[in-house]
Amino acid sequence: xxxxxxxxxxxxxxxxSYALLALGFTLIFGVMRRLNLSYGPSIxxxxxxxxxxxxxLSAGPAVxxxxxxxxxxxxxxxxxxxxxxxxxxxxxxxxxxxxFAIWMQLEQAAILVLPHHTYxxxxxxTGAPLxxxxxxxxxxxxxxxxxxxxxxxxxxxxxxxSRFGLALRAIINDPVAAHLVxxxxxxxxxxxxxxxxxxxxxxxxxxxxxxxQVTPMFGMWAxxxxxxxxxxxxxxxxxxxIVGGLVLGIVEAQSQWYFGPQVRDLFAYVLLFTCLVLRPxxxxxxxxxxxxxxxxxxx
Amino acid sequence: xxxxxxxxxxxxxxxxxxxxxxxxxxxxxxxxFGQQAFFAIGAYAAGIATALWGWPLGAALAWGALxxxxxxxxxxxxxxRLHGLYFAVATLAFAETVRLLxxxxxxxxxxxxxxxxxxxxxxFRGIRYIFENDVGSLQFLGLIYALLLAALAAFVLLERSRLxxxxxxIGEDATLAAxxxxxxxxxxxxxxxxxxxxxxxxxxxxxxxxxxxxPRIFDVMLGVHSLAYGLIGGLGTAFGPLLGVLIDIGLLxxxxxxxxxxxxxxxxxxxLLLILxxxxxxxxxxxxxxxxxxxxxxxRSHSTERLNRDLP
Lengths: 299, 312
What we know:
The structure holds 2 protein chains of 2 kinds.
Chain A: H1 2-32, H2 39-57, H3 61-84, H4 92-113, E1 119-120, E2 130-132, E3 135-137, H5 139-161, H6 163-173, H7 175-180, H8 185-211, E4 213-214, H9 218-233, H10 238-259, H11 261-278
Helix pairs in contact in A: 1-5, 1-8, 1-9, 1-10, 2-3, 2-4, 2-8, 2-9, 3-4, 3-8, 5-6, 5-8, 6-8, 9-10, 9-11, 10-11
Chain B: H1 3-27, H2 35-51, H3 57-79, H4 84-104, E1 109-111, E2 114-118, E3 124-125, H5 129-132, H6 137-160, H7 162-172, H8 174-179, H9 184-210, H10 220-233, H11 239-253, H12 262-276, H13 284-310
Antiparallel strand pairs in B: 1-2, 2-3
Helix pairs in contact in B: 1-6, 1-9, 1-10, 1-11, 2-3, 2-4, 2-9, 3-9, 6-7, 7-9, 10-11
């Protein structure tokens, strides 16, 4: 029983980083209705910039965070300009494949700059884990959880309580109508992309500071963890991103404990498949309409 | 031909099967990230058939196709009612599940004092049919391209048939297709099954080409690549995905000049290409133009021939 509770706690902690990744992902998907496969790799560019600052200049945590977030935002905007902005309304698949091509490009660029397989990443909080009765809590995990909750609340507030959020929701509803009432759709979409990348950059920083190392595999990892958490929770839903991330984290932690790491991934994908088949809209999302979510859908 | 060229050409041929498989689903408007799963199932099924059961190659390839097709239909039943991203991610989840199950899959038999068969993450060694039966690499290359040509011929026939029209109609607008009396669900399931079988044949060929398969080969990267091939080469004709494979493996992976910078060039080029041609190089419009020009050429030569004959 103690194991089970401890696993659940660990799952919530790991899941909060998945939730943060899903939050950025769902923001992009909600606004664009397109899949950005380059989401994780652009976070990785930020992470490489962060580790470069750490290794070369032995910079402090504030500089590393700033470098990571700025790198992720720049790479994210690059992806948006190249793969999303120039594409016509009906070319969702082209955007997706194009973002995959840029993924390959970003990954290779990162490897060219830092050719070793692993690089150190500065830890967020060293020191003994807190004890709570028989349970252990890592400080960096708690910070990640706090960030996930605070950021999702902030994004929710931004979407529902600000003019920019109103503009974004108008675009989500109908981009043509939004354009007609005077919203600068292109700028707003680019800003949403930058915001999502910044959230991703923070998520990336927190994950890597916990792992204390960064590898070129991080981009793929971030894209797929974010995608799975987003799909489980529900496309385009912010509470869904949090719930999806936490559920994924808990399932992974439990199955890892009871069956080992290989079976952990198997459980995650089986969970995703069952979720999609039984509740395609995700746990908290709206059920999908007949309209295809990619391809010939809305701009 | 030197060995390197033969191996590159064999690779192009084999990967073309997965690319065609993804393309077939793209025709019906569905994006699949999971065709590599049926490639893997075909590879394991055909490899087991020759290496463990002593089947001849032809039967093993057919068995691989059957396994791939059946699996695709079974997955298609619950997933094909999903759309767009939901379907894409469901196929991704399925394919990763298959890959991770192959990591757990052990089925080994002692043959000639040696353990042969799939062994979890260590993979499946010793699919030596083409060595044991003295099939040369050139001969095997011939077999790959003969089957590929047969598949292409089937595609050409398909595009001229009512079924091909039905596929494209569903891809354009499933509701309109249904209103025109097309059984959308059944037709899509058929497309999924055919695509699975195609990938299965490719997998069987792959297993015998490399003599060794392991689950890691069949990861998401293979699936996304095979999807990208169709989109780079063009969605207008089955030659599109082939062109995509040729550009990627033939041009970039094999020409060592680009080593280190390959993906930087390739990634950028693909992104630019998709801005200019969102449905690939050989898209529907280009294919239509080529067809029209070809038809005109035929008509003209035909009429001049007649003119010549009619002249005294």
